[in-house]
Amino acid sequence: MSKAITPRAQDYAQWYNDLVIKSGLADYSAVRGCMVIKPYGYALWENMQAELDKMFKDTGHQNAYFPLFIPKTFLSREAAHVEGFAKECAVVTHYRLKNDPAGGGVIVDPEAALEEELIVRPTSETIIWNTYKTWIQSYRDLPILINQWANVVRWEMRTRLFLRTAEFLWQEGHTAHATAEEAMEEARRMLDVYTQFAESFMALPVIRGVKSPAERFAGAVETFCIEALMQDGKALQAGTSHFLGQNFARAFDVQFLNKNNEQEYVWATSWGVSTRLIGALVMAHGDDDGLKLPPKLAPIQVIIIPVYKNDTQRATVHTQALEILEQLKKAGFRVQYDDADHVRPGWKYAEYELRGVPLRLSLGEREIQQHQVEAVRRDTREKLYLPFDQLPEKIGDLLDQIQQDMFHQAKSFRDQHITTVDNWDDFLRALEEPGGFVYAHWDGTPETEIRIKELSKATIRCIPFPGQLPDHGSGHCVLTGKPSARRVLFARAY
RNA sequence: CGGGGUGUAGCGUAGUCCGGUCCAUCGCGCCAGGUUUGGGACCUGGAGGUCGCAGGUUCGAAUCCUGCCGCCCCGACCA
C-alpha cells in the first residue's frame, strides 16, 4: 500500500485531505490558503462547468466578464454588503516594485501607492451594478441575464482544500429585471437549475429552502439555497440564489423608465456555485479506498486494464484492448486504456479506485477466449462480464445504473440523517446520533437562532420549501417553547 | 486571532531528551538491467540532502540557546 488513506472513522478531516491529495485532484501551494487544482481536479471542474453552462444558456443567460479589481468605494455603497465582506478582502495598494536599495531584493515602491485602493473581488455585485447603470435606461433594456465564470478572493482565516480556500473558482449570475415578481422567479428558477445539476449530475440529493435572516447573503432581501449532507453528518451549502430586491439598484442608482413613463429602480438577482462542489462530491460519495465519481461528471468514465503473463499474451490483449478502446470512444464514452508495463494490474486497480473511476474493465487471455470483458463497478465493487458484441450498450446501461445508484445511496443516507425532534434534549442528541439534519420548531427570532448556535454549534440550514419535507404545521420552539409556525432544518455545517 | 502539532531526499520517516560512533536511518517512489504480471511484485546496481531560515554556544550542532518563518489540525468567522 503505497498510498495509505486515513480511514473515515479514524479522522474524517484527514481522510478528506488524503483523498483530495492522493487522488490527484489538488495540491497545496506555496501561498497560504490557496491551492493548486491539478489536471484531474480541473477536468472534473470543466465537466461541471460544461453542464452548468449549458443549463444557463438554456435558460437564456449569456456569459460576460467583469474586472477582478473593484474600487474600494464601490464596496461601501451597499451597507449590508460591505459589512458582510469587509473582514475578508484582499486590497491592492501599490502598482510597482523596485529593487531594495538596502540590497534585500525587491520591495514595494513607496512612491507607487494607488490613489484609490482596489479590492480583489470577493463577489462582483458592486462592479457589475456600477456597469449595469450605464446599460439600462428603459424597460426595453431589461431583463439583463448575465453569468460570469471567474475567480474570487475571500481572505478566510481558516482554509480547507476546495471547501474554503482564499481564492476559488465559481460562476456568478447577475440579472436585472423590471419587476420584483420577475426577479423572484429568476432566483427560484436558478435554484431549480442548481437542484437539477446537483441531483442528476453530481448524484447529490439536496434540500431547497430559504435562508434565515442571519444566514442571508450580505445585501440580499431573500437568499435561497440547496443544502446537501456529507458522510460525517455535516451539512454543506451546495448553491445559493439571491433575490436582491432593489438594494443594489438603489446603491448604484440604476433606474429605468417603465411602461408608464415612470422612473423605477431595477430588480436584481445573483446566484452562484463554486469549486466547493468538488469537495461536496468527495465527501458525499467517497469511501476509505478513494473517490467515487458520478459517471456524468467523471473525467474518466471507463478504464481498461490489460492483464497478461508474457509478451505473446501482451500483444494479443493489446490488440483487443485497442479495438475496445476505439469502439467505446466512438460511442462517446470518456475511456482510457492503461497499458503501462511498469506497474501490475493490481496496482492499477487500486489506483483507479482511488481516483474514483466509475467502471473498470479488465481484459486478459481468459476474457478474450470467452469474448467478454470483466467489469467492476467502483460504487458497489460488483463484478460482471460483458460480451464483446454488446459493449457500448451494456456500458452505457451500467454507467446510467451507477449514476442512479449513487444518487439513491446518498439519498438514503441523507434521509436516515434527518431527525424530527420536539425538545431540546432530543435536539442535542440527534445532532450526535444519528447526526445530520435536525428538523425542529423555531420561534423565528434571531436571538433564539444565535442561542441555538452557541449551545449546539448547529445553524439553521434552511427553511425548506413546501413539499421538501413533511409539513407538521405549527408547534413550539425547540429551545424557548414559544409558538412556531413551522419546522426548520438545523445542522452543523461546513 | 487563540490552542495544538509539525518542519530531515519527490513522499512518509529514524535520529533531537542525553552534542562526537551521523560528510545522516529506513520504507515508498525515481533511474538502469533482469525476472515478473488476474488485487498496490521481486532481485541487483544507482542517483538524489543548504537536516525550515538566521544568529549564537562549542574543539565539534539535525541534536543545546535565541529570534524568525512556513505548513497542517482544532476553535472563533465565512461559500
Task: Write a compact overview of the structure shown.
The chain has 494 residues and is α+β, with helices and mostly antiparallel strands. It is built from 14 helices and 27 strands. The strands form seven sheets. Strands 3-9-10-16-13-12-11-24-27-23-22 form an eleven-stranded mixed beta sheet, with helices on both faces. Strands 18-17-19-20-21 form a five-stranded mixed beta sheet, with helices on both faces.
Overall radius of gyration:
26 Å
The fraction of residues assigned to DSSP E strands is: 25-35%
Count of all domains: 3
Identify the strand order in the major beta sheet: 3-9-10-16-13-12-11-24-27-23-22
Cα end-to-end separation: 31 Å
Form type: globular
Class inferred from helices and paired strands: alpha+beta
Report the total helices: 14
What's the mean pLDDT score? Answer: 93
- The CATH topology label of the largest domain is BirA Bifunctional Protein, domain 2
Q: What is the percent of helical residues? A: 25-40%
The CATH homologous superfamily of the largest domain is termed Bira Bifunctional Protein, Domain 2
- Could you give the count of β-strands? 27
Unreliable spans are: none
- Broad CATH class of the largest domain: Alpha Beta
